[in-house]
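Q: I'm building a small set of examples for a reading group on sequence design. Run inverse folding on the following structure and report the sequence directly after it, with nothing in between.
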């Protein structure tokens, strides 16, 4: 598959980027998408981007969340977004944490952000060109993830983003800092931005 045939993607953090960060999400009642999430994803989809969620779920390794619930929550998120015409192409989650209480998951892994394993899997599964893609999240680890795979990066100020912006590590680069996901979409799709073009 040549680069011209590979898809462009938006890799999206979950908690604090698509939905309100409630700490460890463990009931569907806590799943509150931001009011602009559906519109933002619909615009990106219409522009030809694959939409891929990549999320660390350390609560599984800590024994606080059942991995089956994460699958249920993602199915519900997908259902709500599909109803508004914003279909997700894939959702990946990392259940590991080196300080976890579940021995099999208390490991250093290749998938926990900012390690690139989840995006590498998506590239292989979906035929994505990372150089024509973006990573959007509310933490610097999301930005570092994007930089690790050669994607453009956006830090959003929702979730932990405003605090992260104030505590920017020395020398940390990012392509844009945006108020929220819909603002990020306006940056990505701006006419002067080559990365927004098909």
């Amino acid at each position: 598959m040549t680069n011209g045939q590979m898809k462009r993607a938006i890799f999206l953090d979950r908690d604090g980027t698509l939905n309100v960060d409630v700490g460890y999400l463990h009931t569907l009642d806590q799943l509150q998408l931001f009011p602009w999430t559906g519109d933002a994803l619909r615009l990106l989809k219409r522009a030809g981007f694959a939409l891929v969620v990549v999320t660390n779920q350390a609560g599984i390794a800590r024994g606080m969340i059942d991995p089956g619930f994460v699958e249920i929550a993602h199915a519900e998120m997908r259902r709500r977004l599909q109803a508004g015409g914003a279909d997700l192409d894939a959702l990946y989650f990392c259940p590991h944490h080196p300080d976890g209480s579940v021995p099999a998951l208390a490991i250093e892994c290749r998938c926990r952000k900012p390690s690139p394993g989840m995006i590498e899997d998506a590239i292989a599964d979906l035929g994505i060109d990372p150089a024509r893609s973006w990573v959007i999240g509310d933490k610097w680890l999301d930005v570092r993830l994007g930089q690790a795979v050669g994607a453009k990066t956006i830090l959003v100020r929702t979730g932990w983003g405003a605090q992260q912006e104030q505590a920017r590590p020395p020398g940390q680069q990012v392509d844009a800092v945006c108020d929220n996901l819909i603002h990020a979409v306006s940056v990505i799709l701006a006419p002067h931005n080559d990365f927004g073009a098909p």
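The chain has seven helices and six strands.
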